[in-house]
Amino acid sequence: MPELIEYQCDYPGCGSVLFGSGIKCSWCRHIWCKSHDTVDQHECASLSMPQDVDRLRSIVQESADQQVARVLEKVRQHRHHIIQDIQSLRPSHVPTLHIPDTFDTLKASKWYSCFNVHFLISFEDNVKWLLRVRINDGREMPHDLVYPSIRSEVATLNVLKSHGVPVPTAWLPPHMQERYTGQEAPNIDYFFYDFLPGKAQEVPIDGYFGPINLPEDKIDQLVENYVKSQTMLSEIKLPCKQIGCLKISSTLDPAAEVIEVGPIIQQGTFMRPTAPHFLGPFDTLKEMYTAHIDATLHYISINGLRDKFQVDDYLWHLELRELVSCSKVLGETPDQLYIKHLDPSGTHLMVDENGYLSGILDWEWARVTTKADAFSDGLFRETEDFFWRGDNSLTDMEERVIDCYNKHGRPDLAECVTGSRLYHRLASIGRYDPARHKSGYREVFKPDLPEDFDPPPRDADWRVYMMQRYRANEGLQEVMQKYGWNIERAEEVSNRARGV
């Protein structure tokens, strides 16, 4: 889910402001107001699945190409400024910024992903850097939204580097440093870091819910690389006392800069629609998840999620809020905190020519958190049983990771994977789906469920139960009134579902 802020319609000169999840077309990524979301302006409006699947897929690719092409053009436009930045960070050296002549050349290099594009920087002494440029969906994003993310990624990389983790050293451009008072910043978001040799770990997937499709020996090596990377992170003893994202202190004295914990920097509903956008830091996970849920409730109340189930969405998040408030585990004050990679799919690992771990990349959105949270992932991928049927059993890949941790004498990290489902379930905050079986979300909070908590399994009955349970909640009453619901209507729907 992208940043939930206000955007303008893409039609030239329109100026209409739109807000909420789903305002960007899923295919072409354009934003159209109602007046301009027409077949003449928006081809996708005339297409549908599955009959137009080939054309829609080509539109997705065209949109992605256009976004990267815009980045390429901006780098060309700001080449002189970027080179000046490099020279200020590495004086007395001669940099060369390698900008591909054409988009096709850049595309063939594959030096880009969904979020960033990379350009090589070489020096006369054979040192190599990369320019890492945010794609931002091909749009100019507010500085108060993008700058904290880049500053945190740079701070995280440099903390990891100082502890021997194989990540690149990173540098902020001068205009993004807190104490900067120079000329106006360019309309392109970037930073610099060391070039790391190697290639991304291959993690081919069979479909959305499919397993990792690799030979057994390659899976074993993937697990070993993953366990090695997580073990490195577990050995870093941070002096931090709060949960949040790392940042560089805003001191006027560069020599006195220290790394500290700031707000959680994340997309979706874990933010405010207006500045200051980000929430935290927090003393406990209970505080963090409660803040995320409250932010989500606010988005629902202003139709920021633009779904068809606003009342059920609100009720489900009220249920989650109550379960979080009763959790003893989430309420514990941590005595030691760790750095968590927020997208540990396996492709964040760099490997050498023999397939061994050589680096760890993509630290955007990384956070400082508890041990149980930081090491809960275990190369987990949602299965159909997890998604549809509320199944919280461990996957085969997680069992492999647990065995590998135990083999290397780290039963403590294996235990984090064993108890990981609480954190995997809470990752759904802000992403309500009535198709998900609600029992799976309650099971992970045992034995801390409230004594009087006994919701019925059928959704229509659950809706009545929750409306009664949270009838004193003013926000719920406002949402119910806004979308034409009351307890009587809910009871009628429940009775019809039961054939009464």
Automatic annotation (TrEMBL):
GO terms for molecular function: zinc ion binding. Keywords: Metal-binding, Zinc, Zinc-finger. Residues 9-49 form the AN1-type domain. Gene3D superfamilies: AN1-like Zinc finger. It comes from the Eukaryota. This is AN1-type domain-containing protein. It comes from Kwoniella dejecticola CBS 10117. The lineage of its organism: Eukaryota, Fungi, Dikarya, Basidiomycota, Agaricomycotina.
